[in-house]
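Key result, reporting period 2: structure in, sequence out.
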């Protein structure tokens, strides 16, 4: 199946997909911009997430804080304001975050010995200061050190990655975007077996459902994997395609923009977020 056919199939099968203009990125030829966004929140900026229109950047810092910065030009880190627009202090230590496509739900991964994904509602879309707990959660028990998670754009699939097992795990939500209805599919993919990637810290899935990328803390690169069956980890394989520019040490987060032309990654060593142009 061609890339165009895959994208068309994906658009038809999942509504509210913010990545409708997606073109598969060739990460091996990515060029890192010389400019970056320096977190103003000290030496403890451990995660980031963009809104799906590229106008807001959410930074998780100091364990339990989430700060929002606005970009005057969508997806351009050089236009991000250093001033915080709004913020939220959670009651738990947060390792990673994810948002519903319309910005009305937020999900946090608690960074403790007990991995818990918690669900919040935002009364104002994309305004994290309006987030309140839904008193709903899910504990992925497949790894004792879950580092990142990804929710499919229809809210019916969840993927987690853990660095105690070096595996990606697949889950299903019986009710869209209700994290309390999640169950494990008993489907996993070993990163250490396929491509010898270890200590994964972050990941991102293509909206086609045929590709995903993982950033590893030992290999210090971003590696591409493909699934022959859409969204099915049991059909995954390493593509022998990597992105490595020497600045990927100490990874914190990974995300593409909404058309696949830009890649973003974070570094814990200097609390910076870098932008990569994909040709």
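The corresponding designed sequence is given below.
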């Amino acid at each position: 199946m061609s890339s165009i056919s895959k994208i068309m199939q994906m658009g038809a099968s999942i509504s509210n997909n913010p990545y409708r203009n997606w073109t598969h990125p060739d990460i091996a030829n990515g060029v890192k911009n010389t400019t970056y966004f320096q977190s103003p929140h000290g030496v403890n900026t451990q995660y980031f997430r963009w809104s799906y229109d590229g106008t807001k950047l959410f930074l998780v810092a100091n364990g339990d804080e989430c700060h929002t910065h606005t970009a005057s030009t969508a997806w351009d880190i050089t236009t991000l304001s250093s001033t915080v627009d709004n913020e939220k202090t959670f009651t738990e230590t947060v390792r990673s975050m994810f948002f519903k496509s319309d910005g009305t739900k937020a999900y946090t991964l608690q960074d403790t010995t007990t991995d818990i994904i918690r669900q919040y509602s935002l009364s104002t879309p994309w305004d994290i200061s309006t987030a309140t707990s839904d008193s709903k959660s899910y504990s992925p028990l497949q790894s004792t050190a879950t580092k990142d998670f990804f929710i499919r754009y229809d809210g019916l699939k969840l993927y987690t990655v853990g660095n105690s097992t070096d595996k990606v795990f697949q889950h299903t939500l019986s009710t869209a975007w209700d994290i309390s209805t999640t169950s494990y599919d008993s489907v996993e993919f070993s990163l250490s077996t396929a491509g010898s990637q270890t200590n994964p810290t972050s990941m991102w899935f293509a909206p086609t459902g045929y590709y995903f990328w993982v950033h590893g803390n030992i290999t210090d690169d971003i590696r591409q994997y493909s699934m022959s069956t859409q969204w099915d980890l049991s059909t995954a394989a390493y593509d022998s395609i990597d992105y490595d520019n020497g600045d990927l040490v100490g990874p914190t987060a990974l995300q593409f923009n909404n058309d696949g032309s830009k890649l973003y990654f974070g570094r814990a060593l200097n609390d910076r977020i870098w932008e990569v142009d994909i040709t």
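Residues 3-13 form the longest helix (11 residues). The CA atoms of residues 26 and 278 lie 6 Å apart. This case is discussed further under Risks and Mitigation.
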